[in-house]
Amino acid sequence: MKRFAFLIPAAFSLAGLWSPPAQAFKIVHSNDVMGDIEPCGCRGLPKGGMLRKETLLKGLQDPELLQLDAGDLLFSSESVPELLSAESEIQAKYLLKAMELLHHDAVVPGEKDFALGLSTFEKLIKNTNIAFIAANLSRKDGKTFLRGFTKVVRKQANGREIRIVILGLVGENLRWPEQLKTEPVIQTAKRLAQELRSEADLLIALTHQGHEADRKLAEAVPELDLIIGGHTQAFLQQPVNYGSAAILETSYRNQFIGVLTPEFEKAKLKKPISAANYQAFALDEFYEPIASAGKTPVQQLLTEFRNSLAEARKTREAELTKIAQTETPAAAVFQTTRKCAECHPAQFRFWKKSPHFGARKSTECEQCHGAGGNHPFSGVYQKTVADKICLGCHTKISGAQRARVSCKPAGAPL
Predict the structure, then answer these.
(1) Cα–Cα distance for residue pair 284/45, rounded to 1 Å
(2) pTM above 0.85, yes or no
């Protein structure tokens, strides 16, 4: 997956220095949240979380916010191990509840949003007041699925109403549930843009297809004003004006939230959109709420979420204990890297980018970490790889390299 980063001056990282136009409402957007309701858990300075987003939105002080998400919202991978499915569904359910509390408007689904299957996806969104839209994604059996677009109205500070139409579009080459089918993005966008342009002062394509595909869409459909995208997790940091549209995308896992303040002149959008009208806010500890201020609605929801998750984990641990008691030591045999990837997708992706992938001598997970067997029930799997294991293959290295040998990112010397 390609990622993009377009840099802007460091001063723009400070919320206090941003002075958007006073007359305009704000568009808040995210993409590839990947189920994170709390901060990402990164080793250094973890970012994200719906509680911090709540603080940011309050600070914007705009009752006319338009909030959009560009997919891969509910889950972090395209499939979830059966043992983790109950916990993953609980997390997705509470993430949607948090977004409702923050008055989120619309979401276009990504392929990861179907990690627990089509029926679970439909169950999760059935009672939400958030609009899930996808004009070129439908059921093969002809049953009603998602709306293709949604219409909203926002007021500027001077009272003028701005009519907004948001189209949902997904990449036709992504892996969708077998019950669904896609139509070509550009063909669908052209048809709907021509039909709806006269009804919109602002026409937005909310897409889940990737940055390069968004550029092609901007070039092919000049009626579009904005393209808010996801899937490639591009950190654009400022609008990319391409063709007649501005393209927005802001990293992943709610680590950064994009805020655009579009300017209008007699209900017509001013183009091209300036970088001064946009800010990517890092959801770091600065946005933690003040403890003495009392619990916010999202804080109360998080307490409920943690309790529900703890109960689900107790149930899972009881199941693991029951299964483990029936296992025999003979079960500690080698599995496959693909089996490991079911529960460790991030590590699997890292391994595929490393020199170990495709090496002449087998360097699959258990070659270094030990036999997983029926892990986590049995086996001799080791989380940390001992230096002597690495040195078993990396024999022709200098003394200095030998002193610091360890598993490192792709391209780093041993």
Answers:
(1) 7
(2) no
Distance of CA 268 to the CA centre of its chain: 31
297 plus 339 within the same structural domain:
no
Cβ atoms within 10 Å of 76's Cβ, excluding its own: 19
* Same-domain status, 193 and 132: yes
The contacts of residue 60 (CB under 8 Å, 6+ apart) are: 26, 28, 259
Measured between alpha carbons, how far is 249 from 208 in angstroms, rounded to an integer?
10
Same domain, 260 and 395: no
Q: What is the pLDDT of residue 328?
A: 47
- Does 292 lie in the same domain as 247? yes
Total number of domains in the chain: 2
CA distances from 406 to 340, 349, 366, 396 (A): 21, 18, 16, 15
Q: What is the CATH number of the domain that holds 89?
A: 3.60.21.10
For 195-247, write each residue's pLDDT tens digit.
Answer: 999 999 999 999 999 999 999 999 999 999 999 999 999 898 899 999 899 99
**For residue 56, what are the contacts with CB-CB under 8 A and spacing of at least 6?**
257, 281, 283, 287
> Does the pLDDT of residue 408 top 60, yes or no?
no
- Please check whether residues 221 and 360 belong to one and the same domain: no
Could you tell me the residue range of the domain that residue 375 belongs to? 329-403
Tokens linked to 392: 């078993």
Higher pLDDT, 354 or 50: 50
DSSP code, position 289: P
- The 10s digit of each residue's pLDDT in 126-174 is 989 999 999 999 999 988 899 999 999 999 888 889 999 999 999 999 9
What is the structure's pLDDT at 2?
Answer: 47
Q: How is 183-212 classified by DSSP, letter by letter?
A: --HHHHHHHHHHHHGGG-SEEEEEEES-HH
Q: Are residues 277 and 363 in the same domain?
A: no
Q: Answer yes or no: do 345 and 297 share one domain.
A: no
